Amino acid sequence: MSTILSVKNLSKTYDSGHQALTNINLDICQGEIIALLGPNGAGKTTLISTICGLVSPTSGTVTVDGHDIITHYRQTRELIGLVPQELTLGAFDKVWDTVNFSRGLFGMAPDPEYLTQLLKDLSLHDKRDSMLMTLSGGMKRRVLIAKALSHQPRVLFLDEPTAGVDVELRKDMWQIVEKLRASGVTIILTTHYIEEAEEIADRVGVIAGGELLLVEDKSALMEKLGKKQLRIDLRETITEVPASLAEFNLSLSDDGTSVTYTYDTRGERTGITTLLKAINDAGLGLADLQTSQSSLEDIFVNLVHTES
């Protein structure tokens, strides 16, 4: 796939001296979905705002479909749609007028058929003549999404798009995301709902302290950094792990009926065979074995903790 967005050595330092971004490098391919994860203040919103032309970079370059965001800002803004975190909407404007006006801002010809379908997809069509002040927070979030998609952008940024919204909107939105991806739209989202990133993203980036710690294919990240756990159910309850098993760093369950062994999937040897023999030698009877894989949340928390 061809690269639609390229960020090179991007840094941002505010007048206060706060360095929000440090030497960010990121290439994003057309049609992929990438999730950016990071704690509050990590630099996610600053990165998105800089790419979208809302914040001026201190150094580095950003190109969208080959166009520089500084020297060709009109072309790049036409290619980008942004759903911000904040609900910034005029209280007395109507839904249809707001979305239609947004399309016109980008010089796009009127297309009532497209906008009608867009509002239907977002469950907004029956609210098209309603003033924004009468809408719920979830409905206002849908309007922001409609505004971002009104000019049919090729790159869509979703900055915490489902924060504080209902489950129904969240499901509707991800269906729209999949539909957009199928049409070739590239999607970059930030989210605190790690399970969403794990479910829909092709790649995952982790940001902390203004630095992009890594960007990996989701499955490769799980395989590369993930840990597996082996839970061993015992036939008899024990009060402590035998000293002969200390080298395996086993965790004993609260009820004393099982022990858990954590091992690195990247290792040439897992040590499981040796462990099982040692357990047998210690006189412990095995009732059952179960393995589990670390979640993306486990990996994320471990990465941010390690870098902090």
The CATH superfamily of the largest domain bears the name P-loop containing nucleotide triphosphate hydrolases
- Structural classification: alpha/beta
Envelope shape = elongated
CATH class of the largest domain: Alpha Beta
Number of domains: 2
Tell me the total number of β-strands: 14
Average pLDDT taken over every residue: 87
Percentage of β-strand residues: 25-35%
CATH architecture of the largest domain: 3-Layer(aba) Sandwich
What is the makeup of the main sheet? 6 strands, mixed
Low-confidence regions: none
Please work out how many helical segments DSSP would assign: 10
Task: Tell me the distance between the termini.
Answer: 35 Å
Main sheet: which strands, in order across? 6-7-8-3-9-10
Rg from alpha-carbon coordinates:
24 Å
Helix content: 25-40%
CATH topology of the largest domain: Rossmann fold
SSE pattern: EEEHEEHEHHHEHEHEEHEEEHEH
